[in-house]
Design goal:
Elements (H helix, E strand, L loop, with lengths): L20 H14 L4 H18 L10 H12 L3 E2 L9 E2 L4 H20 L24 H9 L6 H16 L3 H6 L5 E2 L4 E5 L5 E5 L2 H14 L21 H15 L6 H14 L4 H8 L4 H4 L1 H17 L32
Helix pairs in contact: 1-2, 2-4, 5-9, 6-8, 6-10, 10-13
Length: 350
């Protein structure tokens, strides 16, 4: 009997409880697609739940998947020695899964458990706690790094023009990797400089972009973009005209990291960079929340502290008073240097 009690179990016959876990996973993935969830979200669920099914064993019945086995699976994830197992974009590598990856997989499993419960199956994830994650510092690209990234691109060839348009659109909108890859040409308006994207949960939103991104997109689309060969006419295309994918965009960024020397370049870092610079430039938090597609403004507030730090650093380098040439203040010390402190009798500055 499932540890959560028999209320749900009683709604299913003993024969029904022998339904294989894999069959219910297929039903769940189909339900996700019917609800219009993004391909990336469905793919994440597919990989995670396939791993759970392999761990539980072939032909494991839903009746056999209890809370202890699910917790043991999470412990196995935390003890894993290989990263990117069955990942669509990366080759397997030695090394454990990050706490953030494990947390994402646990959230996926809990969502599956909630669906099971709604469908009157036993929920083996009740009481499952998400693992603690270490606090991280949100990083951003410096102006100099952005200049190096864009400066190393040859916009007179197809690959360079496409990469330039991708980077400038990332930095001008802060959209997610999947949103950029799947953005359709019909949803791009270069005249008003707006792009409609499909966000998480199938929620659409319209994001604006600036002049540099508009010029870069215009150049790529009018001169270098291939003719589409697939049914989906995405903004960005592969060299053979096939629609863009997240894997393709990641490959563009991988090559750009090597060429520019900015080895920490990735899509989410450009999203952070946009958010922080938007606030520094005077943007408000509520608008930023909408542009980024955050459901809760609490998620967006992470950028407030970081933007304040960036403002402080930039202020120190550009303090207007320190940059003035004031002959009346020369007798107090060299212009732009800290005011000399008096020493106490013990020789310690007061």
């Amino acid at each position: 009997m499932n540890k959560k009690g028999s209320r749900v179990d009683q709604k299913r016959t003993r024969r029904e409880m022998q339904v294989p876990l894999e069959a219910l996973v297929r039903q769940y993935l189909g339900d996700m697609r019917l609800r219009g969830l993004s391909p990336e979200t469905v793919r994440t669920a597919e990989l995670t739940l396939a791993r759970l099914a392999r761990y539980a064993g072939p032909n494991t019945a839903i009746a056999e998947l209890d809370q202890d086995r699910v917790r043991a699976f999470v412990a196995d994830l935390q003890a894993a020695k290989v990263r990117y197992e069955d990942h669509p974009y990366h080759e397997p590598k030695d090394g454990g899964l990050s706490p953030f990856t494990v947390d994402k997989m646990v959230r996926t499993i809990k969502a599956f458990g909630s669906w099971l419960e709604r469908e009157n199956w036993p929920n083996p994830c009740l009481g499952l706690q998400r693992p603690k994650k270490p606090k991280t510092v949100v990083e951003v690209l410096s102006d100099e790094e952005v200049d190096r990234i864009l400066g190393c691109l040859n916009q007179n060839i197809e690959s360079g023009a496409r990469a330039h348009a991708i980077v400038t659109l990332f930095l001008s909108t802060g959209i997610r990797l999947s949103e950029l890859a799947h953005a359709e040409l019909a949803n791009l308006d270069l005249k008003t400089q707006r792009l409609k994207v499909d966000g998480k949960g199938g929620k659409e939103r319209v994001v604006p972009f600036g002049n540099l991104a508009a010029r870069s997109l215009t150049r790529y689309l009018n001169i270098f973009r291939s003719q589409p060969t697939g049914s989906l006419n995405t903004v960005f295309l592969a060299a053979d005209g096939q629609p863009a994918t997240s894997k393709m965009v990641n490959e563009v960024l991988r090559r750009l990291k090597k060429k520019s020397g900015v080895t920490r370049l990735r899509a989410h870092l450009m999203r952070h960079t946009f958010a922080v610079n938007y606030l520094i430039s005077g943007g408000d938090l509520a608008t930023l929340q909408y542009i980024l597609g955050h459901e809760s403004i609490a998620v967006t507030q992470i950028y407030l502290h970081l933007s304040a730090q960036q403002v402080h650093v930039k202020y120190q380098a550009h303090d207007p008073l320190d940059r003035m040439v004031l002959s009346s203040q020369r007798r107090f010390g060299r212009q732009g240097q800290p005011f000399p402190r008096r020493a106490t009798a013990a020789g310690i500055p007061s």
